[in-house]
Each structure stands twice: as C-alpha cells, then as structure tokens.
Amino acid sequence: MDILWWQIAILTIYAGVQILDNLSFGFLAQPVMAGLITGLVMGDVTTGLMIGGGMQLTILGVGTFGGASHIDANSGTVLAVAFSVAIGMNPQQALATLGVPVASLMIQTDILARFTNTFFAHRIDSKIEQMDYKGIERNFLYGMIPWSLSRALPVFLALTFGSSIVKPVVDYLNSDLKWLGDGLTLAGALLPAVGFAILLKYLPLKRHYPYFILGFIITALFATIYGGLSSIGTSVAVLDDNFTTVFSPLPMLAVALIGFSFAAMAYQRNQQTSVKVSNSQNQTHQDHLDEGEIEDDEL
C-alpha cells in the first residue's frame, strides 16, 4: 500500500507540532503517542502501539543530564510505523532499522534548529533595547518556525520519497540477506530490555532491591495464575457449550498500582524517619542552648 498525500500531510503537521509540545507540555511528544496517532492515520493502531511502545521502552533510561539535544524518538516512531504499515514490514524490524537510526540522526536537525533560533534571540535582544514589546512577542513566536521545520521537513521528505528506497531494502533483507533481517528483528525485540537496563542503572537498587525482587515475583506470579485460569477456562469452554465465562488477564495497570502502593509506603516511612531525626537534632540543639543559658538566680 502507498502512503497517501493526506496521510503525509497529517503526519508532517504532527511532526512539526510534537516538538513544540515537547518544549512545553510534553503530552503529544511521547513515542507511544506518536505510535498511536500514526497508527490511526495509517489505519493500523496495533502496529502503531507495538512500535510506539517498543520505542518508549527503548528510551526509558535515556536521559540528557546536563545536555540539551537528544534523540528524537517521536519522529523515528512516525517513520517506523508509517513504513511498517505501508510496505508490510515486521514491527520489530522497523523499530531496529528505521525507528532507532532515524531518532539518532534527528539529533543533527535538533542542533540546526537551536543554531537557527539564535537569530531570533538576537533580534529579541535588540527589541528589548528599543522597548518594542510587540516585537519581542513576535520574534519569540517566530522561534517556533525552525523548531517545527526541523522535524516536519525531514518527515515530509522521508514519507514522500522514502518508499522507493525502503521497500527494495526491506525486500532484500527478507530474501537474500534474510539472516541479517532476522538479526535486526531480534535486535528490535531486545531494544526495550536495553532501555530497562539503562533505567535500572540510574535507580537506587542497592538500597531498594527488596522491592525490585518483590515486584518481579508479584508480576510473574500473577501472570502465571491468570494465564493458568485462562487456559482452564478455554478447556472447559470446549467441553461445555454452556460455559461462557471469560477470564480476563490481569491488566498492567493493576501491577503498576501494586508497585505504586509499595513506593508510597516506603516514601511515608522515609518521611517519618526524617521527621524523627529532625526533631531529635532540634531537641539536642535546644539542650545545648539551655546548658549555656544563665538563669535569673545566677546573676
């Protein structure tokens, strides 16, 4: 299937808007949202969520501490989902061959947007000296133009002219270079685990390792129990036509709420300990002051 002109137009607009949202609210500028929106536009929400969720987990532990430019996972997700749906590409292969490389390459356009924006920053400086408040506001808004174009233009060009390049490459990966295509698919499946590993490196596991172990066990235990119940229900339904009960799996939201409960209890306990330590220190300080205080009868 070809990518239609209206699909290119909507995805280009979204690519330009999401970076502005990333600089402000950050609601639309998430890979999972990029996957959902692109999936809706392309007519395959399942593929969009698979690639968007995979990219979200991949960058889970990626941070720009002390830095400014970072990979644009949203634009990478848009292109990966669009081409995966358009040419029937494996979602995991699209994540590894398109999503991550494009996200990394977009660092250069991010730097270009920041560099171009200095022009408007200098114009604002001159408007400040002139006390031209309307000019300050106007040039501030002009700064959105290079930001939007830094994402919208590459996405537009890739969607417009990329199909003729991507499709032969994908066909070649799945035929003559099938071993490489299978390897890239496997790499795409492992990327979310890499994101988790990077995240765990920043978390204070040495201090809270019991909660980490407990969370893993709870998740595995519930998955086993609910998976077994679902299998039993399927078997009974085959034997008895009147058995219509459906066993739903435990949603990840429930597991997340369990983890949140443990985190809240640990936080409250730490707060109480901090209050006790603070009160003890204040009392000790007060005792020292009382020891040096001169009473009236000592004068």
UniProtKB/TrEMBL annotation:
Polar residues: bias regions: 275-284
InterPro entries xrefs: GatZ_KbaZ_carbometab (IPR050303), PTS_IIC_man (IPR004700)
Pfam family, one: EII-Sor
UniProt keywords, alphabetically: Cell membrane, Membrane, Phosphotransferase system, Sugar transport, Transmembrane, Transmembrane helix, Transport
Origin: domain of life: Bacteria
Main location: membrane
PROSITE patterns xref list: PTS_EIIC_TYPE_4 (PS51106)
Region (Disordered): 275-299
UniProt-listed PANTHER family: N-ACETYLGALACTOSAMINE PERMEASE II COMPONENT-RELATED, PHOSPHOTRANSFERASE SYSTEM SUGAR-SPECIFIC EIIC COMPONENT
Stated name of the protein: PTS sugar transporter subunit IIC
Organism, scientific name: Staphylococcus felis
